Amino acid sequence: MIFIHIPEVYRIFKRHRVPVDLFASNWFATLFSNDLAFDIIPNIIDLYLQVGKPALIKVALTLITIIKDNFPLSKLSQDEILMLMS
User: Which of 11, 47, 48, 83 is the most exposed place for a label (fewest CB within 10 A)?
Assistant: First the structure.
């Protein structure tokens, strides 16, 4: 989905060999509870219960977009990108 919605991030991940599943699998398995502020998690769970998996994908894409807008991903190393995304 990243390659469709955020192609510039997809190209950076591909160039730096950043496997999305290394951080995204944890996001989905924990419904983002390990990575986001506690007060946001009930809203994400509500969205998930109402909409299902598409809600989680939208949250993940939004999170990646926020990170992209605030950090120079293209200037970071693979390890730095993975640390930032985790």
Answer: 83
pTM score: 0.87
Task: Give phi and psi for 68, each to the nearest 5.
Answer: -60, -40
CB contact at 8 A, 18 and 82: yes
The whole-number pLDDT of residue 33 equals 92
Pair of tokens at residue 40: 């946001």
Q: Are 34 and 63 in contact (CB under 8 A)?
A: no
- With contact defined as beta carbons under 8 Å apart, do 83 and 27 qualify? no
Burial of 10 (0-12, 13-18, 19+ CB in 10 A): middle
The mean pLDDT of 64-79, rounded to a whole number, is 95
Report helix, strand or coil for 31: coil
